[in-house]
Model the fold of this input.
Amino acid sequence: MSHRIRKDECISCGTCEDVCPVTCISEIEDGKRLIDEDACIDCGACAGVCPVACIDQV
Done:
C-alpha cells in the first residue's frame, strides 16, 4: 500500500514533504506535491499532517 495526494485539493503548503521519512514526496507544477508510490512505506506521516486532508491510502 501507499498514499496518494489529490492534486486538485492540495494547497501547496509542503507540510507533507517535510515529514516524509523516506523523502518520497516531491514538488511538481504549481507547487503541488506528488508521492512516489513505489518508494512510499505507508507510514501515514504525510496524511496525519495535511491541513486539508487531501492524502489518501491506496
